[in-house]
## 1
Amino acid sequence: MANAVENTPVPLCVLISGRGSNLRAIGEAVAAGRLRAVIRLVVSNRADAAGLEWSRGQGIETLALPHQDYPSVEAYDEALVQALKARGVRLVCLAGFMRILGPVFCKAFPQAVLNVHPSLLPSFPGAAAQAEALAHGVKVSGVTVHFVTPELDAGPIIMQAAVPVRDDDTYETLSTRILVEEHRVYPEAIQRIIAGGWRVDGRRVVTNPVSET
Amino acid sequence: MANAVENTPVPLCVLISGRGSNLRAIGEAVAAGRLRAVIRLVVSNRADAAGLEWSRGQGIETLALPHQDYPSVEAYDEALVQALKARGVRLVCLAGFMRILGPVFCKAFPQAVLNVHPSLLPSFPGAAAQAEALAHGVKVSGVTVHFVTPELDAGPIIMQAAVPVRDDDTYETLSTRILVEEHRVYPEAIQRIIAGGWRVDGRRVVTNPVSET
């Protein structure tokens, strides 16, 4: 997205597949004024996602876009891009969206697609991050907010936060502790991107010194 | 090493290749009574390692064991095992030791060889951890104390601590911030192993519940 200070709330789309707990955290940050954005649209690839009902209750437009209705990732990407562009969406936030977005989608929203992942990437990419962290025996895991690129969980990192792993943790206790941090960190990272003043230098997302103009 | 409460200080060997700043941190923890151990021997694979001179100044026995004097990793391991066993060493702490220890050494000291690594493993194993963390653009790196196994930087993890990565970090500033944590965490992790009451469950190093006997 345009990397400059915004005076009007930035129109977001949030992509979900389930309950959308991070969608709710984003909605709360918007309501509290911590996030200068407006959720213009919530899209789910599953029509029965609980987060869609929550969104409608909030007066947010929703769209179910079942992936099985499309013959390819490219066709799905194109439909999604068209829906988002038609509504003036400028920033896309994945929140438990369990589908790969391909190059077609990523090119349509350069440096404007964000995801939150339940580990300190590059450790434990993929869909089983918490279980893999436990099995590996790490003592520190965490949360990563990153730009989405066609490579899974490998885009430039915007924010990370550490979460301790305890000896008596189960998948549930660790996942819950990480989720609390996701809800805290994700809206803050989105606001940093909206606020501007950053650049991507190689793989590093860095804030420009104040002295630069 | 024997996983039980120790009443006498545990004889350690510290392996170094250079200045041995973690060796000094271990020595300070011993002197302060935070680590119930005695440094019985310091070994370097380089005769000019500055840490050897420091050790002699502390009255600690030193041994230079140049790797180029040995035809193979196995021959080196055997000489090292012999030197350590002859002095009653029970726990081996790597502190910037830039040589691979092979299966011969690891089998001679089961669950009794420790290393400190300047990243949150499994991210960034190997000799360039800080530079790779910077290039990857992580916002959180850290320190890992782990058991040494013949696979490089892949043994069960004893302790980890997170260290923030800043936008203006260089290799030097990040390495320095991580080193401060190494000096804090490594003696504490060694003391946990000496104190006993832990077990290795799969890859996880976990403390036994107090109710277990």
## 2
Amino acid sequence: MKTREACLEADRLDPLAPLKQEFFLPEGVIYLDGNSLGVQPKAAVARAGEVLNQEWAVGLIRSWNTANWFELPRRLGNKLGRLLGAGDDEVVVTDTTSLNIFKALAAALRIQQADHPERRVIVSERDNFPTDLYMIEGMIDLLQQGYELRLIDDELPLERALRDDVAVLLLSHVNYRTGALYDMAAVTGQAHRHGVLTIWDLAHSAGAVPVNLRAAEADFAVGCTYKYLNGGPGSPAFIWVAERHQDRFWQPLSGWWGHNRPFDMATAYEPAHGIRRFLCGTQPILSMSLVECGLDVALKADMAAVRAKSVALTELFIELVEERCGHHPLTLITPRDAARRGSHASFRHPNGFAVMQALIARGVIGDYREPEVLRFGITPLYLGYADIWDAVETLRDILDRGSWDRAEFCRRSAVT
Amino acid sequence: MKTREACLEADRLDPLAPLKQEFFLPEGVIYLDGNSLGVQPKAAVARAGEVLNQEWAVGLIRSWNTANWFELPRRLGNKLGRLLGAGDDEVVVTDTTSLNIFKALAAALRIQQADHPERRVIVSERDNFPTDLYMIEGMIDLLQQGYELRLIDDELPLERALRDDVAVLLLSHVNYRTGALYDMAAVTGQAHRHGVLTIWDLAHSAGAVPVNLRAAEADFAVGCTYKYLNGGPGSPAFIWVAERHQDRFWQPLSGWWGHNRPFDMATAYEPAHGIRRFLCGTQPILSMSLVECGLDVALKADMAAVRAKSVALTELFIELVEERCGHHPLTLITPRDAARRGSHASFRHPNGFAVMQALIARGVIGDYREPEVLRFGITPLYLGYADIWDAVETLRDILDRGSWDRAEFCRRSAVT
């Protein structure tokens, strides 16, 4: 597509274009940061009103039964599971991604401890999103049982890291900075051949790329609902466990919501059967309720169509940037092969931070990641081809004029 | 007060009565369950609208800076701290009570491990709210370091449980079932004399009874915001640590929100200075934002006046029940001495569950707790003396008619 008109024509032919109507999009904004915080489904306002004005204000305590608040984690988990290739009652929406990593890690280590107590290494990636590493570090420090963290990077590729001392491999399906995508089935198979259990962090893939946890024979997965799933700022995260581990898994954040009979008020913890034992304490009902609005839109779309459009938009974005801004010092750090990337594209620029601030000031909202990285999220449910065209034109204009250079910008980042 | 007229007169003279206007109270309801889920501050609807329509829908990712979302846990914590006798930057609002117990327990055990590694017992109370016990059990199971849980009860009073092998004492300030209140300063002193660190669960006391964590020389405290603080269903909890432990404390749920420089995306975890290191993952912004509405009302009231009214209403409730329903098999299980109870009163009745269902059907909402316990929360910010009168009259009418006996009720409890 070499012209804006061609982009508009592609928008007219786009089968997913009607879904844009399901979202509130602020005027004058091209939003390329849905991989950090998704936009608002229009249904969210009415749903919030229901929770506030009926369920809380009038129903009060009765809403635990009448509005089925207690069932929300499982009910939403079942909807979400359909996007992830999970079975019924294999997913719950609860807590934060960080906490769910802790639970999955504890569960995986416990299984290995029983079968292969000599395995004391947890493998992750140096370039993983930091909280994944921090949670592993916290667990190792807490346990004081000689566990260690081994990080794969340019010097230590995965195949050399997966030795017989490894208990667990924790990877992000899509890298938060570069957008690089792992082949989940292949890597899981590789891990299993070494006797290693896998935990997949789907924060940057759930709702953006096809995920089939069962087909990949993954062991555990966690992820967040506020990016491509449009659940709202800081909306609760999710956790999945493979059915084959359901009888064995255990987790130490054993709050009363995970008890088999929470209202018996028994003294001894007795885990619920199935995935509900991954629950811990009382959940933020208002924030959690809105997750459903985003899921309902996502479930209207065919994931293959979403992926096809994501690939087409990302290709277009990369092509246009390289063609139209090619005389500026921009370096693509996202894989060129569509099969190896998720749904965002990142370029380094020596003045990345200032350029991104100038873009945002012009209504093209992406984000900045250290070092020097301009990150652009491509969300097929509400972006079109002409949006990509216009975004690149704005970038070109800013770079050509050097206008990012003229202002002072406070060097303060937003949240991934 | 022997008549409804006397109660109405007391309401007219009540200096806290105007605060009732700050809350939405459904018509035809006398709400005696604010110790389970508080009512809705009227300001919450406007605040939710702001978060939904401005901060999320329009501000999108920019709101992490412009609406200061990242600072919410600390900002709300500082407001809440004024109700708890805490210093600035000693409290954060975050996660759930269960998770905050885990953090405080890990921190306390780590301190003891350094100073007194031989102390391997955690003392709590058999009648404590179950999640407190479950979290201790989960920690013990996870650590596999020979820790054990010792429960005080009728047979093992606190003074005999606090031996030299004890590391940590975890108690609820107010018991969720009986309403019994500990003297925090006295018990903390007793624990300290035995070299034991204290964790106080303030779920049933924050906003209901005077709490002065600094004066009591407590070590750690946690609690929830959705009961007497009216933060909304499942609104985030809080955690406090004494200033003297701030340099030493450590906790294993070390997510990126607790990192000293979260946006550097460093590989190694480096805890923030002060209480912020008790944060873990991204918080549910909508649910958290509404906590402020409840706090703002609570801060308008003088806590001594709140306590005085709580005592007066609870006295009145107990007196009236015993006078007017005394011919029915009701047994008070709450301490008669006002100095030894929090802000709710509980009676056993052999048909407790059915009686409570009948009360709820008549608009008098308390709750039921195993075994046979009718629990009535007394919330001075929005209840008056005539409400108490009317509630007791409804109870008397139901008991006199035996009308609780005539219907079949599903035996399903609501959430504490």
